[in-house]
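Researcher: Next entry in the queue.
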Amino acid sequence: MNSATRMTEPVLEVRALCKRFGGLVATDQVSLDVRPGEVHALIGPNGAGKTTLVHQLSGTLPPDSGSILFRGDDVTHLAANARVLRGLVRSYQITSIFRQHSVLDNVALAVQARSGSSFRFWRPVRDESALFDEARAVLARVGLADRADVLAANLAHGEQRQLEVGLAVATRPAMLLLDEPMAGMGPEESERLIPLIDGLRKDVSILLIEHDMDAVFRLADRISVLVSGRVIATGTPDDIRANADVKRAYLGDELEAASGGEA
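Model: Structure for this entry, 263 residues:
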């Protein structure tokens, strides 16, 4: 079981967020918060509005109404890159994987982008030992230390997802938006990623969007359930397992299976 969520001011606070596409209401008065050191999972069926919500939180899609507060500041209308500089990071947002460069070079570039060190030519950057020391430390943290010299293109799918998380971690975020990090993974790959995400919580808050219910119930301190653009429930994993509305609206059988068959 996860430790009790620290009762402190939210890192992220979403208030009555709305987004419409013509007659379709993609997010409908969505309100939720993420606390320091918390993994807050967002679940819901396909088409529920989860990706639209993440686009709004990351700054790639403006809301029609509502507000987004990050570390106490209103960032509703900030550009995506400005949110990254403040520490609100969606993993793919920092940089794409450079497939023809090594895993270490990929992470070093993310460290460089954050630190503002000599962004000139590739070889001078290679000489910056502090930058590469930090990159190696990030790789060790995400379980890729022994893959540092491998071309990113040659990583397995699960390893590429680990690298994406590493790129985000290298920016030293205050909060990570992880949008289905386990998509396309087999059971063994997921088993490697779950403890990686769990280990990040001491340094960074996480909003986790995920369909893997086993991972959700193992990782989440709290869970919000989004259905047809609306949050129908927020609570601890035990609260969500027992919620009749959630069972009716969203994959009741999967939630029961993830809870080990409990009612």
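Model: Residues 187-200 form the longest helix (14 residues).
Researcher: Noted, moving on.
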